[in-house]
Amino acid sequence: MPLDKDLLHRAWAQKCPRCGTGNLYKPGLTLTVRDVCADCGLALAKNDSADGPAVFLIFILGFTLVPLALLLEVAVAPPLWVHAVLWTVIALSVTIGAMRPLKAFIIGLQFKHRASDWKQ
Q1: What is the DSSP string of 65-120?
Q2: Which pLDDT band holds residue 115 (cuts at 50, 70, 90)?
């Protein structure tokens, strides 16, 4: 089953899964979802993404950063402190940058597949 491009665009923009215009999150650098979409009135508080975004991000980071760290070690053999600083900065940057869009994507998937549960 192909991915819905509208769903991906709305998740990347962190917009309401129904209308695509209302902001999904409360203002600021937070993962708190608004109670209701300001544009279409969708009850966003009914979503339950739980730990899904964090688990997916852990798997993505684990499958990409560990092999990259091993390749760097074999190719260059830098000191241990270089590994610690480099991979910490990369992991934190990817986590902070990807958590909100990934949570928005999971909320969009829930809305797409269980829209009847979201009705007021």
Answers
A1: HHHHHHHHHHHT---HHHHHHHHHHHHHHHHHHHHHHHHHHHHHHHHHH-GGGG--
A2: low
pLDDT digits 0-9 by tens, 1-28: 566 788 889 999 999 988 888 899 998 8
With b meaning 16 or more CB within 10 Å and e meaning fewer, what string describes 78-104? eeeeeeeeebeeebeeeeeebebbbbb
Helices (H), 28-79: 52-75
Q: Count other Cβ atoms within 10 Å, centred on residue 34.
A: 17
pTM: 0.82
